[in-house]
Amino acid sequence: MKGFDYRRHDGLGLAELVKKKEILPLELVEEAITYIEALNPDLNAVIHKMYERAREAAKAEPQGAFAGVPILLKDITQELKGEPLTAGSKAYQNYRAKTDSEYVRKMRKAGAVFLGQTNVPEFALVAVTEPVQYGPTRNPWNHSYTPGGSSGGSAAAVASGMVPIAGANDGGGSIRIPAAYCGLFGLKPTRGRTPVGPNYGRYWQGASVEHVLTRSVRDSAAMLDELKTYEKAAAYHALPFKGSYLQAAGTPLGKPMKIAFSTASPIGTEVHSECREAVLKTAALLESMGHEVEESDAPVDGRKIAKSYLTMYFGETAAAIASLEEVLGRKAAFADVEPATWLLGMLGKATTAEEFVLSIREWDKAAYHMETFHEAYDFYLTPTTAYPPAEIGELEPAASEKALIKTIGKLGLGGLLKKAGIVDRIAEKNLMRTPFTQLANLTGQPAMSIPMHMTAEGLPVGVQVTAAKGREELLLQLAGELEQADDWKAARPGFDD
Signal peptide: which range, if any (predicted)? Predict the structure, then answer.
């Protein structure tokens, strides 16, 4: 196609060209492969390539809203039969998916062509993507910085223009944090909105939800139309939405909304001036658009939320390590996973069933309080993250900390660490950069990160907007309006070559 610039189109734009027969799906696949091969050596976003399989799928002339659109999958939960799925861990290096996940089935039905899988931190546990198994993924805006995690590989792939859409999931901010760091749109849907089957009935006790990372609002909205589901065996079901999310993204709100905003960290830690400025600018813009905006904190105990989140996090890590026996044919040992992962698993083993249940009850209390809050406010505006992106390796434990972790891990001193108050210190250290995103995971609410600010160093900063359960269409309407703002356009990836 003469004059065709693959990276200047979003997913729906590429699909429209296919439908008009202006370009073939196979040609799109070859364009995507060209960019992956050119950009991935520096970014390390794609860790498993499926080019021949993609070429065959493209030749079959896929149909659907995203017919022929090249897409990457995240290397955890998004299973494609016969392909590796390692969750960023050497323990899974020989594993091959036995079936397609329901997420993959729905994406394929929508016409997506899968080119490969993106890098994740081990077991998708942290907000940077630097697994020992594959090495760090780098931010396309500045290769010295992280794209975030755990969907960091997907974010880097989309922000660099390898693909317009990539698979992602979010159990504590793993869609929204990379979106914020890479200038993308990232929507975490309502709990139960998107599929988890057939191998699971819930992810992370319902905290984790599947969706995508995109450059345009309409791509995310249209993909949510394709992914929204009712699974009989799923543990959670979202209130049905019979309309079109794509249509919502193009429909103005039509009336003033009441919006609460806060720039205060829910765990009482520092918030960087650039992240505060992003929220204040966005609040001022919304007010200029006719919305009623006022400062108000969420009616929850942020420290209790953080601790209850980490209780689940420890327990799920312990369970993930225990489940390795099915793959390894023996019980997992310290050397099978990264030392920090083993430490988290030990803390999970030291957590009682009583503590676990009490922590889940905190989720339910928070959900009730937030539903009441949203009777007064349509949206809740905060920073997506408390700091701009960290440099690669900045959050790596020091040599002395690594030695301590190794000693503790080999001696199995998880219970002793808990008694010493280590959980509270881990909570503050791990969440001080990203304390805003976990609330929506625990309450089940939809939340999005929108690119509304650039730092003096030229790195994107995201603003998070949360709505009541089941109200993704409101978020998409607001995002569709804000997408036209100059601040959004400045923080969105552009391609000049």
Answer: none
